[in-house]
Amino acid sequence: MDNKLQAFDDDPNYLKGLGGWLIVVAIGIVLNPILLSYQLNQELFPLISDGTLAVLSDPSSDYYIEYFAALFYAELALNIALLLAWLSLLFLFFYKHKAFPRIFILVISLVPFIVLLDSVMVNKILPEVSIFNAETIKLLARSIVYAAIWIPYMLMSERVKKTFTRPDSDNEEQVSTTTSIPNEA
């Protein structure tokens, strides 16, 4: 049995590649853009297409809510920024780019703050909506637990260190692996 364990230690490709717990990370990275796109299509875009945004942001309307348009566009901007971040992570992950772990940590660290910011903005415009309603508490708890699990994994995992090694460009790799010989003139 010791020989089998020694074989793993001697193999430089052991713990390298998109396997192990990185499969769970991959599932999250694939699902998050899908879920955000669904949320945009189900919750935000219909407010434009059915005229709700126009009615709620028109001062002459009986249903006017001051700053509702600002809230809507802030929500839209935050969701699109998160969608772009998750799509970027998707590319970096499957490309095995060396920046993936740092950017992943940054994004999942920001999510709880974005949830809180969103909740505070909604409460300022719609005071009847509690800052810490059930949905916000659920999203906040989920994002904190997610970060608490995956940030340490990204920082300490040997598989992460061995997998995400691709440089920014082929030039960077060539420059770092070649040596220059001074000209004799």
Structure description:
With 185 residues, the chain is mainly alpha-helical. 72% of the residues lie in helices and 0% in strands. It has eight helices and no strands. Helix 2 runs antiparallel to helix 4 (68-95), helix 4 packs antiparallel against helix 5 (100-125) and helix 5 packs antiparallel against helix 6. The termini are far apart. Mean pLDDT is 85; it is low at 173-180. Keywords: Membrane, Transmembrane, Transmembrane helix. Residues 166-185 are annotated as: Disordered. This is DUF2569 domain-containing protein.
If helices are DSSP runs of H or I spanning 4 or more residues, what is the number of helices?
Answer: 8
Q: What string, H for helix and E for strand, traces the elements in order?
A: HHHHHHHH
Helix content: over 70%
Total domain count: 1
Mean pLDDT: 85
Q: Please describe the biggest sheet, giving its number of strands, its sense, and whether it closes into a barrel.
A: none
How much beta, percentage-wise? under 5%
Total beta strand runs: 0
What's the short version?
By secondary structure, the chain is mainly α. Helices cover 72% and strands 0% of the residues.
List the helices and strands and how they pair.
Elements: H1 2-10, H2 22-49, H3 52-56, H4 68-95, H5 100-125, H6 134-156, H7 158-163, H8 170-177
Helix pairs in contact: 2-4, 4-5, 5-6
Short key terms for the protein model shown above:
185 residues, mainly alpha, 72% helix, 8 helices, elongated
